[in-house]
Amino acid sequence: MLLIDVVRVSEAVTRTSARLGKIGHLAELLGRVGPDEAEIAISYLSGELPQRQVGVGWRTLEDIPQPKLAATATLTAVDELLSRIKAVSGQGSQAARKALVAELFAGLTSQEQQFMRRLLHGELRQGALDGVMIEAVAKASGAPSADVRRALTLRGWLPAVGAAALGGGVEALRGFRLEVGRAVSPMLAGSAPNVAAALEKAGTPAALEWKLDGVRVQAHRSGPSTVTVFTRTLDDITAQVPELVEAVLAMPSDDLVLDGEVIALRPDGRPHPFQVTASRVSSKTGVERLREQTPLSVFFFDALRVDGVDLLDLPYSQRQEALAGAVPPGLLTPRLVTGDVAEAEKFFTDVVRAGHEGLVVKSLASPYAAGRRGAGWIKVKPRHTLDLVVLAAEWGHGRREGKLSNLHLGARDPEGGFVMLGKTFKGLTDELLAWQTERFLELAEGPTDGWTVTLRPELVVEIAFDGVQRSPRYPGGMALRFARVLRYRPDKRVEDADTVDTVRSLML
DNA sequence: TTCCGACAGTGGGGTCGCAAT
DNA sequence: ATTGCGACCCCACTATCGGAA
Prior knowledge:
Radius of gyration: 25 Å
GO molecular function: ATP binding; DNA binding; DNA ligase (ATP) activity; metal ion binding
Structural class: alpha+beta
Distance between the termini: 58 Å
Protein name: Probable DNA ligase
Keywords: ATP-binding, Cell cycle, Cell division, DNA damage, DNA recombination, DNA repair, DNA replication, Ligase, Magnesium, Metal-binding, Nucleotide-binding
Catalytic activity: ATP + (deoxyribonucleotide)n-3'-hydroxyl + 5'-phospho-(deoxyribonucleotide)m = (deoxyribonucleotide)n+m + AMP + diphosphate
Cofactor: Mg(2+)
């Protein structure tokens, strides 16, 4: 199959707003792709590369050759070239990589170049990713989408699942099994504004678990000496977390798949800032030395397999029993089962006081299902707010093209002026975007690089955020975590905005 | 007919590893 | 030694579609 066939379908999907229409276009193509190219087609049309990452980003794509006039590139040829690019990126010079990227793009028409550029950026923007592709695979193969979804949970990679479905239908999908050592797609959580709302969603009684601000881990043990650890995106981090490996090897069962969180704790048991945990987990060199300074702890909250028995389809309450039987009590995430709102709220207050992020409220009945945020797990975190001043704004992309979107936020400096604390684009409705674009252009003043519009600091905006973290980037040495707009405060003057001193006091 | 669950899009701060400067 | 890039940790929120109620 030619790349241009895939590109044309992608363009049709982009033009179609109805989801069923998108699914129709995708399924039509899946119906005519050969078995040897099915994985590539599914991968491209769900916005990812079979190679996952190839070491090519926006900078590398700034300078690419003139396009060809005739579309002759096959999927197989393009895929093969991308694999070579990845191989060179793994161990080789920039020049060699650049030459291969040039070779790839020189073989494409301008239409194909545009598609490949977006695909490499990870910004296909056709309104269809895994969720829509699952339905398309179901439609093209005749298998129920629940079977596609189920196989994806177990296999963790949709192109392989899709290719199997196209070749062998529902029987092939049901052949997928949990395999120790191969990552399972993790179950994700939705969110609720408070404990009472979360309980209502989950149904009572529900389990409340401490939400630790660390890194999600899936630990697989097969046999007496083999442990593999995966992240949420299914990357293998076994070598970076020896403490976890040792903890799992010390367990009596040698056939396990566990879900949990690693976190760096201080000697007094309170958590380090997230940055410390993230640094430890992503450091590959000097791990033995680092673990002495900053040891990692692990807390498990789910079991997908214990002693060779798959547990994914069991209700959460039964998986908990299996977990408690397999894992030492000290490695279990603190939890409370209750239907009482007051008791739940006290538990929430306790966990926040202990320095942790909040709670995850879980339905006792829900099976382990990948993706599907909000199905059975709901997170609750406390929310801070500040009144800050808009210092500048940046033009948006995609559906925000032509709108001033991303705000630069500043706190008032009592000495005079403002200190920037970060940016946000979250929480804005279309109406607010339109309003602020107009208003900002009135306030525009001073230098602009064509991208960022500097404003007279006159507008106060109420910002919600999760916490203040140390920042190597911003002048005050601090930045807001997960900042989002709640509302503008036309009733407040700039002199009423919060000061850097207030923000600094929140960092402790 | 209205409601609501699921999805995609739009970007945020921080850190590491690696190659080039 | 420093800088820039790519990848990946953590992530919140709104608009939209289409099935459920």
